[in-house]
User: Fold this.
Amino acid sequence: MATVENHLIELLPRKDRLRLLAICEPVQLSLAEVLCEPGKPTRHVYFPTDGFISLVAQIDASPVRSRYGRP
Assistant:
């Protein structure tokens, strides 16, 4: 991942950004793919460069959605 395509990563100080990008790798995600489950360890961190990732949480028996990423 040579270029910065994510605004969050772009805001990091140069040294930190280069260190992070050195261990990043691009992945293709499928529509409705589950990235993590409640109560299970988080194994990866995702920085969307195109599209978005939705966070769905259960609050008072009603699902609540939030989106992260690029339009």
